[in-house]
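My main concern about presentation is that the manuscript never shows what a single data entry looks like. An entry of this sort, consisting of the sequence and the corresponding backbone structure tokens, reads as follows:
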Amino acid sequence: MGKFSFYFKYAWRSVLRGGQRSLFAVICVAIGVAALVSMQSLAASIQETLLGDINSLTGGSVIARGVRTADGRDVLNTVLPAQQETLDKLKTEGQIQDWTSISSNSMQISGYFGFPPSLFTVDPAHFPLYGTIDMVEPAKGNFSSLLAQPNAIIVSKYLWDKNSYKLGQEIDIASSGGFGLSSTSGKSARLKVVGEIRTGAPGIPFDQGFIFGFGVISQQTAANLFPSPTASNNNPLFYLKAAPSTNNDKLALTLENSPAGFQSVQTAAQVQKQIGDVLQYVDLLLSIVGLLGILIGGVGVINTMLVVIGRRTTEIATVKALGLKTRQTLTIFTIEAMMLGAIGSVVGVLLGTGLGFGIKGVAEGIFLRPLNWGFYPGPILIGLLVGLISSGVFGFLPSYAAGRVRPGVVLRQQSSSLPRVGGGMTFVIIAFMTLAMGLIAGVLVKDLLTGIIGAFVTLIILALITLGLYMAVWVVGKIPFSIGPSSKMALRSFSRHRGRTATTLLVMVVGLFFITFIVIIADSIKEPVRRAFDTNLGFNVLAVNLTGSQTEQIQARLQTEVPGLQKVFAGNNTNGEINSINGKPPGRGGFINLSGRTLANGESLSPNGGQKLVAGRNFTPADTDQKVVLVNQTEAALYGVKVGDRVNLSLQSNGFNPTGRPGSPNNTNTTTGGGQDFQVIGIVVNNNSTFQFERGWVVPYRVVAGAGSGNNFGFFYMLIDRNQIKPALTKVQSMIAGGFVFDLGDLIDTFTRLLDQFLAFPLLLSLLSLFSGAILIANNVALAMLERRTEIGVLKAIGAKRRRVLNMLMWESGLVGFLGGLIGIGVGIIIALLIPVLSAATNRGGANNNFAITWSPLTALLLLALGIGLAIAATLISAWGAIQEKPLVVLRYE
């Protein structure tokens, strides 16, 4: 025990004597542990939120989707008698304690022109079966009692904030035909806003309404205000609360085999497993990010310990001359490294807990729901253990070097160089360190073999990258560059410790690479969407006439009554089948999507952003009732169609089917008998392939409308003067009651918001890596100041002022930031630019790919300035105190 007491006392005294050296080692470990703890805490939060109370999350212990009615429609507000009978029987038998249903639809809010939100209809007396819905406004309100009020609606936070709603405010809504409202009725329902709830409320389907908001009304309100419930966009969901003694799997099987026709029956446990399978990848990603943080901290420990030992070779030689054995020296310095790790781990746990809570807000934007947050002892314990162990592992190599110091060094003057460890032993130690980190990684990812393999693969990749950076540092050091003595000395010092500089560059390069890549990809996605909606499409307002009736009459009214309207045309869609081409079978599957269009002031326009006529002619006013067709160039090549050919088509009688295939599940549409002959009058190619409102075959609007019944949707594409957009949209909405009207500018804002939310998380992690690089630079500068105290003392003794010394250090660190930025940003731009090339090379079909990478030189310069600025700031923080020391003090003791 006496030996161990001596080891710990000696190591602890060395930590205290280290001062700034020890401080920077602690900071490096703290940054790594903070990254690990924050990622692990976030993973625990996600697990708790999505897997904690799975019954509340899904809405029931068993969930079933209702079957469609005999005519192929979904019932919105009513439960089929067979379904009612089956569920009541299960309740009477004691297999379930209760059940409830929820149906959904899209709604148009008067005066709101964003993407149509969802409208959920529930029974407040039974919904939700599990959990409670906490109200945001009123803060202590009761969901069930509020919703039970006549004509009440509760809206989600997104809609509340976007429309600046207030309690008691009345709004007019119309639904997508499902409530019997038509474009000719001109009627809507007036509802009173009685509350606000967050997304992620128990029982509210996760896959509906979270992006564009939603509202909730009671079944009684729907029955009173909308007396003719018919079709819904989605089958109703039935939630069952099973009795404790019921086998949920058998109950689900009973529902599947029931004559009532329930479909897609799942138990909460099955849903939990599906979510858990997905979250495994999330946990893996977060664990890897945390481990990379530990790796960065380990590099800081190695750098610090190597300098510490280099500065204390005389001390080590003295104690070894007095009888301290090599293994004891190794033990002492390993304990010292672990002490630094322990202190850094404690600090890192505190930082990581706060960082995790901050990252939670970013993750909520990705999962589109609020995440629970609490005290998670698991991540804290993991952070403490991993920080302690990794510090010991990374401190082993410099500790081994300390054990190699010979006692004879004490007889030499001014000896501070470390003895050579040897290539073979260095390889063995690095392999041991990698194995140890691989075991840690394996424990975190719950697969030891994967962790070990991943650690060695990471080692090889990082070694190759570091070798490349090492060579880059060597090359830069040879450049005959000079802007005065400070820059010349900085360039020489820059390449003095190439290994240390290369590892610092590695962290800077990784951070700036990912930031650059994410920014470029985000801009490259946003810009085509913005350009397509703003200019390429040729229209900025889209309206949907869900009944499809009187579309051409409405178009005529729009042209004369809407202020600021510059042009308007209509379109519709159906499915069809090619029977023959010039009397011969098509030779391949003939299922196609057929689009119809009207003219805009006598001109034929495409809603896809314009079309180029390759051969033939476009539609004219004389073609309004003719069997003529325009064919996209790709489809024409696929079927061997040319101008003048006669194509026999069978059109479906019931409009829009988003699958684009007749005979798809639940599709009761039928094709017109015998088919019709169409003459190909033109071959076209789209100018813009980002959005396809029309597909490959286009005919006059009346041809599609004549084949359908009342459900053939009509789309109005309008270009309206932005200065008059608000009154124009209000007028359009009043003319298409029961349909949807929305401003494409709002869709751009929504798309940008979602993209920013999804990219915020990786961007934040990249910034964390960049910040870690700045910490390493500060660490390296501080260590350099300690190593070069004599050099700096001599410079100051011969007349160099503090400003000159500081300029030299700033030049040196600025060069690190500049080179790291140049490599990281340059590689990020190159890889981003290669994406379209690789995409085109792997596109076997040869389809037109309009995704182009755009990057701004100004953004690149700003990111480069960020890297240099962080490096210089780190230098000022770590070197300011050291350059204040008087040269006489340095020379006296050095």
